[in-house]
Amino acid sequence: MIEKNGIVEEVTEIQPGIFILRVKSFQIASVAKPGQFCNIKVNDSLTPFLRRPFSICDVEDDVISFQFNLVGEGTKVLSNKKKGDLLNIIGPLGIGFNYSENFENAIIVAGGIGAAPFPFLISNLAHNVSVTSFIGGRSKKDLIKYKLKNIVVSTYDGSEGFSGNVVQLLESEIHKYDRLKTKIFACGPNAMLRALSKFTIEKGFNCEISTESVMACGFGICQGCNIEGVNSDRFLLVCKDGPVFKAEDVKL
Q1: pTM of the prediction?
Q2: Which of 15, 20, 42, 163 is 20 to 30 A from 112 via CA?
Q3: Which residues pair with 245 in a beta bridge?
C-alpha cells in the first residue's frame, strides 16, 4: 500500500456521463494488479467526504486510468480535474483477479460501470487466451465498451442486442463454450452478481466476482465494508479480503 500525490494527465468523457481519469504515479502503477483499486482523496476542501474507492481500469507505463460515472458531488469534482492537478491516492488496495490459472477462454461479465476493471485484466491475460465480453445496461446509452474485446451486449429495454439482463444473455450463449476450459470474471451490481454466482455454481464454472462497498479506510481498519463469507467464521472485508472473491465463497 502506497500513499502518493499523483499528477492528473487528463480527464476524458468517453460517452455521456462516463469519464476516464488518467493519473501519473510510477510507484503505484508499477505494482498494481488487475482487480485492485485505489482510494482517492477527491479534494482537500471536501473534508466531510470520505476517500472514494475506484477500480484500476488500466495501467500504461506509469499512468493509471480510472473509469467513473457522475453520481454525486465527489465524481463531479473529479470530472473537472485539469492536467497537472495533484490527487492524493492510496493504493493499490485489495486482492485482484487470479488470472494465472490454466484456462483457454475468459468470459467477462459486466453490468454498467462494472466494466471498469476489465481493460487492465484483458491486457494482462496470456496471448493464447480468447476473450468474450458480455456487457449489460438498462438501455443502449448505459453500455460501456471501453477497451473490451469481442463484445456481446444486452439491454433491459431491448434498444441494443439481447433483450434482458446480462446474466440471461450469458445463459443463452454459454453452450458455445462447453468444450473450452473457461473462467468467468464479473463485476457489477449485487443483484447481477448474485444471479451470476447462482448460475455458475450450479453449472460448475470457475467464476470470480469483483464486489463493491462503501469504504472509509480502504485497508481493513474501519471494518465497515463487511461481506458474509460462506466457509468463514467471520465476516470478510471487501477492501482487504476482496474486492475479488470466488463466487462460491461469499453471500451477496
Answers
A1: 0.95
A2: 42
A3: 209
